[in-house]
Amino acid sequence: MSPNALPARPRLADHVLARRHLVGEDERILLHDVRTGELLQLGAREWALLSAADGTRDVEGIVIAAAREGAPARIPAAQAFFEQLHAAGLLAAEDPAEEAAPWARATAATTATSRGPATPAAPADPAPDPGARDPRERPLEVLPDFSLHCDGRGSCCRIYASILFDPEEAARARALRPEVLSGGARHERAFTPERGAWPCAASVVAMRDGRCAYLEGGAGRCSLHAAGGPDAKPLGCRVFPTSFIDDGEAIRVSVAVECACVLASVGRPGGAPLVDPRLRARGDLDERLDVATLPDRPEVAPGVTAARAELVAWSRRLAAAAPPPDVAAGLFALAAAVEAEGLTGGAIARFEQPEPLDPAALAPWLAALHRRAARRAREDAAWRSERDLARKATQWIAAATFALAEPDLLAALLQSPAPDPDRERFTLRAALHGHRLLGALPLSLALRDRAVRLVVARALPLVCAEAGADDPACAEPIALVEAMLRGHGLDAYAADVARAS
Asked: If you compute the radius of gyration of the chain from its CA atoms, what whole number of angstroms results?
């Protein structure tokens, strides 16, 4: 068969995410190609055709199956529709091996879009040392002096692109709330596949105006929690915002600073622990939890690696260091020191007493983030509801980075004291404890990236005030920036800077 010919039994490729969104009562299906970032919007009829394309039917069989679901189509029109998808690279190859290799490469650089613990992408564990301790015995090392006070307002349930349910969780949700999107009768009315087409291991709930369909009206409360208690929610929701990473010595248990409740909990005792205090080691954790593995030799600067144990020890020293007067300036200074000196004590000394941030050094980073945010804002305006928090937050970030392109404004912002220094210090502490600075980027670039995020967060309240925004998510701009960059792929701006430099 010609490589350009339509597969005889077409199905959606695994690198394509299909997501159902309701804007008011208008239903839209978005296909997101994670390799390119491109979006394609479908109507209900086209989605019915695509849902019937499970890799076992030819186009004629797909048309028959779709007609049984109330979506009649003519065979020539269906043929043309699938040829369009194939030309766009959205259909799976006839030979699964042809798709597997590029998909494997793409996933390594793709930002996670599911809600739940977000940990650095990592390769498989190195070959085990016969004399090494059983990984299941590694102790849990929980972020100290922190407990979570959740306000139950659902900010985190209305900003992420995907909320995952496993088959049991989806069945329970449909039984508890059968009226939601009429999902009690048919699974596919409330859910789409996690990746590609049916069947799949996990499903993603539909979003209404950017919110999980199972959120109650204006109060934003989880109706699954209300109907069946906390265990009625999917595991990712119950665990969020806790993260887990195996660094070869311990399981670091930290928190993703992506929810307003996290920063609102800083310094407040008496909240919920990140994990049950009775859990002591990795083997005590639910086996379904995503426990990432720190790479054996993380990249600390472009083209330069270090042993994992060396970096873990350095991370502990940095966490114990005196906080700098300006965390963003400290991170930028530390990045330059790591590139010049490696993981030395001198680098940490430069972190503790940094030079003021240079607006010219920040400018290319802010410009790259603006380009990403402005592009996403244009795309979102074509299909997202005006009530959608993700749409509004993208506009705010685009506006903040545009404003900071003015040198005098940026210089004035950098000369002013940070509005929430305790929040900034906690954000860094949580990232260090959870090794969240180690991922797709070398450590030195990740440090600069985190500095830029803090600077943008400092500018965000001015933008929200000018826009008249009264969303509770605006109360914690650092969390809003963190959630948007990871959850909606805006963090790819840092790779844009790296490629351009």
From this structure: 23
Contact 92, 196 (CB under 8 A): yes
Calpha distance 371→490 (Å, rounded) = 10
Cα 433 to the center of its chain, rounded Å: 19
Q: In what order do the strands lie in the sheet with 26-33?
A: 39-42, 26-33, 16-23, 207-208, 211-212
- How many CA within 13 A on the CB side of residue 170? 23
DSSP string of 418-440, one letter each residue: PS-HHHHHHHHHHHHHTTTT-SS
User: What's the N-to-C CA distance of the chain in angstroms?
Assistant: 43
Between β-strands 26-33 and 16-23, what pairing exists: parallel, antiparallel or unpaired? antiparallel
Asked if residue 461 has a cis previous peptide bond (ω within 30° of 0), the answer is no
Question: Rounded to the nearest 5°, which phi and psi values hold at 393?
Answer: -65, -40
**Residue that is written with structure tokens 């994670």 in the block:** 34
Spatial separation of the C-alpha atoms in residues 217 and 474, rounded to whole Å: 20
Under a CB-based contact definition with an 8 Å cutoff, are residues 423 and 460 in contact? no
The residue among 93, 118, 60 whose CA lies nearest residue 257 is 118
The two three-digit tokens of residue 280, written as one number: 């002591």
Q: Please, which pLDDT band fits residue 36 given cuts at 50, 70 and 90?
A: confident
How does pLDDT run across 423-443, given as a tens digit for each residue?
Answer: 999 999 999 999 999 888 999
**Domains in the chain: boundaries:** 16-108, 135-293, 299-500
The 8-class DSSP code of residue 29 comes to E
Q: What is the pTM of this model?
A: 0.89
Three-class SS of residue 19? strand
Copy the structure tokens of residue 4: 């350009």
**Dihedral sign, CA of 440, 445, 160, 165?**
positive
Q: Residues with Cβ < 8 Å from 353, sequence gap 6 or more?
A: 324
10 Å CB burial of residue 182 (0-12, 13-18, 19+) is exposed
Q: What is the largest CA-CA distance in the chain?
A: 70
At position 45, the amino acid (one-letter code) is R
Decide if 232 contacts 110 (C-beta within 8 A): no
